[in-house]
Write a structure and sequence with these properties.
The complex is a heterodimer of chains A (455) and B (377). Chain A is an alpha+beta fold. In chain A, 33% of the residues lie in helices and 20% in strands. In chain A, the strands form four sheets. Chain A has a seven-stranded antiparallel beta sheet, with helices on both faces. Chain A has a five-stranded antiparallel beta sheet with strand order 5-6-10-8-9. In chain A, strands 1-2-4-3 form a four-stranded mixed beta sheet, covered by helices on one side. Chain B has 377 residues and is α/β, with parallel strands linked by helices. The relative contact order of chain B is 0.12. Classes of the chains: A alpha+beta (455), B alpha/beta (377).
């Protein structure tokens, strides 16, 4: 028979302290309130967050396993957390839950230079990983906006995407293997090879699952040689449409940029003094010097043939240096809101035109519209005041629905979290029921980050 | 709570953004891993406290006190949120309510009675002064020694006066009117005691007709040049740290560094000199001017330098943690193959030397002035 002790935080704290060291259980109100939010933009004040019953900070997979077993026994929901930098609210504690803070599990377990792979714990911060690899002549290559603080486990759980993904792929593609504590306490570890034909790709169940399928404690990751050379350039175009077509022409030549960004006039503001440049393509390559140089040269000829004019390299450099900070800086005028929608590349211009008209009609104050990393990804950045939050959410849903109508997705890298549960039926149709059925099989007591996968 | 508007605005900004970019370079968080020990987390706690969501407790106060106020968070913040100011403001509010560390109370009591946090006799403040040193009765320049240099790292004081003498800088000291600069008190929230000390020292300096104060202590430099003007208004003298003063003397050709010092060294930026005062280049220039010195940079240096873990009352209040922090910094120096760590702060020096001694590390530690003194003789 289940012991239901929900709400009895004192008892839970006592039980958790039998699993981990006493200092690794937090329960005082000031500590709990610090874990009550992630970066979901609607939670602008701590009063809007959800303080958990307790926070547990395991240091081994075995401790995680015991915490999960305890949660099952006591019917306590668990909220796994890395650095809490998710924009969708997927690391916001479920009501009466225990936060499992993985950030103490931040070790690099091994670096296998021959296999070009590494094994790390889930709480490792990307920047720390990159610095350690850099010393040995390697790079991980995953560079999301939250690179200075995001953890490996968090990036896997949100299936994140980074600035350099054109060359290295998204976070999912960089994962070779996973060690996961399943919701029933069983620990599984997938094979450390890039692919296997013995069954479906089991590790994929945990990539982008926002912690609902288990707790990732370790990951085998692909690493790459540090690039000999990196070139980032910006080309100005008369408008977004021309810039986007210029980029497609580059891709159609078979060129594979390390990074690409197509910008509209809002995004171009302040980047160049050339007022005619209402659109732009920022494009970058890295790798072996001669290859990079050849790619840059060929790209220049394609973009120039498509009415592109190369702008100041200093502007590109400055933009690149500020790439992690820019989202934070959007919070000056209100809470930074963005949509990370994707549509088939052939529908990108149509969606762009819709966003322009939509922003005007809905009164959404947008900084700009851009296509980032993949031509399919077309989204916008904006800021909203507290008084506008409701109107912003309604407007955002309209834009997302348009992307879905065009055959796209509501989110290419942030996740569902508290943001889009109500849109998942529209996005997935009957597949949503299958996802939920899988969740029920793995997590019959519904303890793992209960949310949109647990109706 | 009496929280200034600028502090409240910063709290709101951080609460809106919550990027957590302050995590990796933080002195405390990477070691202890508690969210309320990051700038982001502590700011959330501060806002919650200010707006009445949570109550005050000793546990909460210690979240504010377990921070070296090294300023990495402020430096890294994309929104330039001044978490050092926030933390110190809340420390002051909490101290007023009686939430302090007993160790801090003890050193503040000693400062009040004998004018230094170590409880050493005030009359022995100049005990280190070598008899052959030329100290003027009255001069435009005063050497502000500071408590840690005077009582714990006298070799820095000796080297400083040797350097000043070698460059023919006529200088005086403020003794017996030099009291603790007040840095330890201010950093742990005792603004009242700090104000008393600041007023006394400013008055003592002004009374002596001194127009230029040189100090070899990064902590003293920070308060003399930054906090005194904020607390007591315009000060009638210029403040120089020995590293910038030495660089000036070198430029003017008054200081000649002749003797070879063959050492592979790395420079540790003290927080109060680097991030708090923006002095990064001058000490490096002086080091590079010393014949035989090979300067190698640690991975985290200048604006990104890791704190040694001693400042902000942490060494006194949380000695075990403080030792963990400095050991990590020593590892970073070893990683780049340095034989010696050089810095420009007696408090960093005291902490590094203690850790190097305890761990039996072969690394040496020098204050910049010691190397300068070695090369002029």
């Amino acid at each position: 028979m289940k012991e239901v002790v929900s709400g009895n935080s004192q008892r839970i704290v006592g039980l958790l302290a039998k699993i981990v060291e006493k200092d690794n259980v937090l329960y005082e109100p000031h500590d709990l309130i610090a874990y009550s939010r992630d970066r979901y933009p609607f939670l602008t004040h701590p009063e809007k967050g959800v303080s958990p019953l307790a926070v547990v900070r395991p240091v081994t997979t075995d401790e995680v396993r015991e915490v999960v077993m305890l949660a099952n026994k006591c019917n306590i929901p668990l909220t796994p957390r890395g650095s809490g930098t998710n924009y969708a609210g997927s690391a916001v504690p479920s009501a009466h839950s225990v936060v499992v803070d993985l950030s103490r599990m931040n070790q690099i377990l091994s670096i296998d230079e021959e296999s070009m792979s590494a094994k790390v714990q889930a709480g490792l911060i990307l920047q720390d990983f990159e610095e350690a690899l850099d010393k040995r002549g390697f790079t991980f290559g995953h560079d999301p906006g939250s690179f200075p603080s995001a953890t490996v486990g968090g990036c896997i759980s949100t299936w994140s995407l980074g600035w350099r993904a054109g060359k290295y792929g998204d976070m999912g593609r960089l994962v070779l293997s996973l060690k996961v504590v399943l919701p029933n306490g069983e620990v599984i570890e997938t094979r450390s090879v890039p692919k296997s034909s013995t069954g479906f790709d089991f590790k994929s169940l945990f990539i982008g699952a926002e912690g609902a399928m288990g707790i990732i404690t370790e990951a085998g990751l692909r690493i790459h040689p540090s690039p000999e050379k990196r070139v980032i350039q910006i080309y100005g175009f008369k408008d977004f449409e021309r810039a986007f077509k210029g980029l497609l022409a580059v891709l159609r030549k078979g060129l594979c940029p390390m990074m690409q960004l197509v910008m509209n006039e809002g995004e171009m503001e302040g980047l160049t003094e050339k007022s005619w440049a209402k659109g732009g393509v920022m494009i970058g390559y890295e790798g072996v010097k001669e290859v990079v140089e050849a790619q840059v040269k060929r790209t220049a000829s394609v973009l120039e043939a498509n009415e592109g004019v190369r702008l100041d390299d200093e502007a590109a450099e400055k933009y690149w240096e500020n790439r992690h900070d820019m989202f934070s800086q959007m919070n000056i005028e209100g809470a930074a809101g963005s949509i990370d929608t994707a549509v088939p590349a052939s529908k990108a211009i149509e969606f762009y035109k819709f966003l322009k008209e939509w922003a005007k009609r809905r009164g959404v104050r947008i900084f700009g519209i851009a296509s980032w990393v993949l031509p399919e990804n077309v989204g916008m950045d904006s800021a909203f005041l507290e008084s506008e939050a409701e109107a912003y959410a309604a407007a955002r849903d309209e834009a997302v629905r348009k992307a879905l109508e065009l055959g796209g997705t509501s989110s290419y890298c942030v996740g569902v979290g508290l943001r889009y549960p109500h849109l998942m039926r529209e996005e997935h149709g009957p597949a949503l029921d299958i996802m939920r059925a899988i969740k029920r099989v793995l997590d019959p007591n519904n303890i793992m980050n209960p949310g949109w996968l647990s109706p | 709570m009496n929280i200034p508007k600028s502090v409240s605005n910063d709290l709101i900004l951080c609460s809106r953004c919550r990027c957590g970019f302050c995590r990796t370079g933080c002195t405390t968080y990477p070691i202890l891993g508690v969210e309320s020990l990051t700038a982001r987390g502590r700011n959330a706690v501060a806002l919650s406290l200010k707006d009445g969501l949570i109550g005050v407790s000793q546990g909460l106060a210690e979240r504010f006190l377990l921070c070296t106020t090294c300023g990495f968070c402020k430096e890294r913040c994309p929104l330039e949120v001044d978490t050092v100011k926030i933390t110190e403001r809340f420390r002051a509010e909490l101290a007023e309510k009686g939430f302090t560390k007993p160790e801090h109370d003890s050193f503040n009591k000693r400062i009040k009675t004998v004018h230094n946090p170590y409880g050493e006799p005030h009359e022995e403040r100049m005990k280190w002064l070598p008899s052959k040193t030329q100290v003027a009765e009255n001069a435009n320049t005063a050497y502000f020694v500071g408590c840690t240099t005077a009582y714990r790292r006298p070799e820095i004081a000796e080297a400083t006066v040797r350097m000043l003498n070698a460059a023919d800088v006529e200088f005086t000291t403020l003794h017996p009117q030099e009291w603790c600069c007040g840095s330890p008190s201010l950093r742990v929230g005792r603004r009242d005691l700090f104000l008393e000390l600041a007023k006394h020292n400013v008055e003592a300096i002004a009374r002596r007709g001194v127009t230029r104060v040189v100090t070899s202590c990064a902590g003293c430099y920070r308060v003399l040049s930054r906090d005194y003007p904020e607390f007591v208004g315009e000060i009638p003298f210029d403040v120089f740290h020995t590293s910038e003063f030495a660089e000036e003397l070198l430029k003017e050709g008054r200081l000649r560094l002749l003797k070879e010092v063959p050492k592979r060294v790395t420079y540790h930026d003290p927080c109060h000199l680097g991030r708090h005062a923006g002095i990064y280049e001058q000490p490096r220039q002086v080091l590079k001017s010393i014949p035989g010195i090979e300067l190698v940079e640690m991975l985290k240096s200048r604006e990104n330098a890791r704190c040694c873990g001693a400042g902000g009352g942490v060494k006194a209040g949380f000695p075990d943690f403080s030792m963990q922090a400095v050991k990590r910094r020593i590892e970073e120096a070893r990683d780049v193959g340095a034989e010696s760590i050089v810095s420009t702060c007696p408090f960093c020096a005291h902490h590094f030397k203690e850790a190097l001694h305890m761990s039996g590390s072969p690394l040496e530690f020098y204050d910049l002035t010691e190397l300068v003194a070695e090369t002029i003789e």
